[in-house]
Amino acid sequence: MQLDLWTLAIQAVNFLVLVWLLSRLLFRPVRQILQKRQALYQEHMQQAEKKAEQAEAAKADYDARTAALEAERNRKAAETHKALQAERDEILQEARAAADEMRDEARKQIAEERERALAAAKDQIAGLVSDLTRRILADAALDSTGPALLARLRAVLDDLPPDRAATLRADLAPADAQWRVITAAPIPDDRRRTWADTLRRQLGTETDPQFDVDSDLLGGVVLHLPHQVLDLSWARKLELAIERIREAGDEP
After folding, report:
1. pTM score of the predicted model
2. 3-state class of 183 per DSSP?
3. Please, what are the domains in the chain?
């Protein structure tokens, strides 16, 4: 079989024309369509990736906000608990302080009531002793200015400390010094000279005393000098005894 070169050439040319036509009319549009689709696909992929990234960012922001809200809630809850605990402690402390104050006040009132009761009891006892003693001494004072009282007064003056005796004498040293002898009952006139002479010698003075009566003395004698007093009355002794009774009641 012989090949016809011209026929082969024409067929080759036809083939090339066909290829050119196909490339021009078919392959190029198809390729453009494929390129557009590829570009569109890539664009969609980029948009999808961008949206995925945005979604991840939104999720991360949501998680961060959620964590921040949880932390804030926990912080506020802790602060509230702390504030409530502090308020509770403060209320308890105030309650304890109020209870302690009430207890101390109650103890103070009880102690004061006890002291008042004891003082009232001591005063009552002392008053009873004083009244009873005064009645007894008032009856005995009717004959309380006899020689025995003057002798006891002389003994007291003799036993005075030297400085005390010197003070009494100095008080009566002036010529115009006035002094009094006070008794619970009147000293009879026949005894007054004996009293005056004896006391002038004891006290070293030339001035006679004045004689006065004070039934409240109950007995004994009181010497009133210009600037001092020597109290040897039964009333004074009774006062000292009552004071000792009250002081004894204060001892534990």
Report:
1. 0.46
2. strand
3. 144-250 (3.30.2320)
